[in-house]
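Narrative progress, year one. The postdoctoral researcher (J.K.) led the effort to move from monomer predictions toward full complexes, under supervision of the PI. The following entry was the first complex the group processed end to end, covering 700 residues in total.
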Amino acid sequence: MSAAIRIIASQGLGAATAAIAQEAGVSNGSLFTYFETKADLFNQLYLELKAETAAAALDGLPAGSDIRKQTFHMWSQWLRWATSYPEKRRTLAHLSVSDDITPESRQAGHQTMAGIAKLLERSRENGPMRDVPLGFVVALMNALADATIDFTINDPANAHKHSMTAFDALWRMLA
Amino acid sequence: MSAAIRIIASQGLGAATAAIAQEAGVSNGSLFTYFETKADLFNQLYLELKAETAAAALDGLPAGSDIRKQTFHMWSQWLRWATSYPEKRRTLAHLSVSDDITPESRQAGHQTMAGIAKLLERSRENGPMRDVPLGFVVALMNALADATIDFTINDPANAHKHSMTAFDALWRMLA
Amino acid sequence: MSAAIRIIASQGLGAATAAIAQEAGVSNGSLFTYFETKADLFNQLYLELKAETAAAALDGLPAGSDIRKQTFHMWSQWLRWATSYPEKRRTLAHLSVSDDITPESRQAGHQTMAGIAKLLERSRENGPMRDVPLGFVVALMNALADATIDFTINDPANAHKHSMTAFDALWRMLA
Amino acid sequence: MSAAIRIIASQGLGAATAAIAQEAGVSNGSLFTYFETKADLFNQLYLELKAETAAAALDGLPAGSDIRKQTFHMWSQWLRWATSYPEKRRTLAHLSVSDDITPESRQAGHQTMAGIAKLLERSRENGPMRDVPLGFVVALMNALADATIDFTINDPANAHKHSMTAFDALWRMLA
DNA sequence: CATGAATGAGGCTTCATTCAT
DNA sequence: CATGAATGAAGCCTCATTCAT
């Protein structure tokens, strides 16, 4: 899996399965002992990375703090994770737009973000987006996070500043 | 070109050049009379669609109105275009993440959005994002627009409502 | 024709007919007004170059001189021509090994060298090769000439010396 | 490899890789398991045939005999090999003029003939070509051998006679 | 007679997947 | 369970040749 992350990050989804196997130090045939199909590998990888993203974002959540602090913590963790593991983030970005990811996987991927969604639910509950479908709110936050990460990757020196800027913007949207 | 849009929208960038040629009603070889390379076709298509998006967004801009109205007009037009031509939008989305699009094309694509950027510039000039790099602001708006379009495509009945919801959110971010 | 020489010399027989047409300053289609086929062009070119080689070799032949002087003159002229027009010589070399050259063309090409063969006939008439089939003698001389030209092209500074060396060797063979 | 020899001998270097694979009884894809590229196959084949030629020419060299006898042995063996394996000879002839053969391969091919060059070195050491660059002498001998082989292939009944004739000529050149 | 767009067969190469060892 | 050679379908692109203008 980690071999796949490295290869996909650098070569994209068109990377040969043989290249992934080689990076993993196994024979090309062995890869298919663990994954029925290249698409199967993609789906498993997608779920793993989704889960890791979510776990990272929620890691060490200050349960006692107010909702803004909690959400900001989540936001910061997320961005830190994405910029700390650019290959994972890049690979996940590739996978997210692939036709090989099944609707089931996407569905499961969204489940993974339930914890994050819950934070948003509380964040917006008294704000102007209180009546907007939660899925839409999540999608908008996701989009802001992705854009911020992309921008930060090209200007890592100001990672913290960009993170704050975008979070403030998010909060104005929500609350 | 329009054949390519249809095919790429339905089959993705992995579509065979032969399929595009067939859809266009010409022989596979003929395609290479017009485009040196599959990647060349992608780049030209990317620029065309980028330009069309921008043109649609700025079409009929009410020059005399206040900045919020102008920006809202732009936003509405953009979303209308994207939902009216889902294939173009889908194809542009595919192209935007392709490794075949050269940095030059991306650069040119950004130029295309100069008019939109100018509106944002004025929108945020007295707001909380007044000191944020304009490129970042553009990226955030772009992300919101894309997410809104995606959401709308799955729920077209509420297109207008989603558009307003997202615009209000954008405006809270900016002004 | 001269365009074909330049193109074939630099790109080999695999050169596209379109490239030849372009070099000649005509449209690709026009080429086929003059030559039925690419192979037809090759055959005509082959004959032209063969004829030019022979003509060059026999140009200014000192009819009154003894046979050694005449043969040496022919030899020198041949080598001078080949090194003066390396593209023609290179193209002829390519054509000579092509499967597109018909047996008829080869036959005709040999006819072209009748004058040279006649010189050889007289050169060897009292020598050790007096009973060898003339075709064989011609082939051997041809081989020596080609090898000398190749060697000279890589060391043009000593063109004259190599020419003399090889002619002396030829003469020892023949007379 | 032997399949390639047969196919190239009959169809030239333009032969499809698929044809070679079929002749070898493997799938077209398999060919590329063994050779990265068609050009790679050509280069390996070139080296193999060059080596085989040289080995055949020097096989059973009568080390104790005088230099003329040794050289004649080499010459005879060479011609015997070439006329015994006309396909190999034809293929090598094709390859020798191909642009796909790298300078490295040509260099290596020349190395292969070091043993033959050594014989020539000794053959000419007291003769009229004693001061000629050895590379030139080798080239001339090569040319004579090739021409003799070509002539012999069209008149195999007199193979021995042609071989003797040409060797005598060679010897007059050298010694 | 010139033009150059159109044709479509054919070539080289890649790669996911299989399977005998 | 690991291996890695074998498979063959599929894709991109080239190019000699044709033909309507």
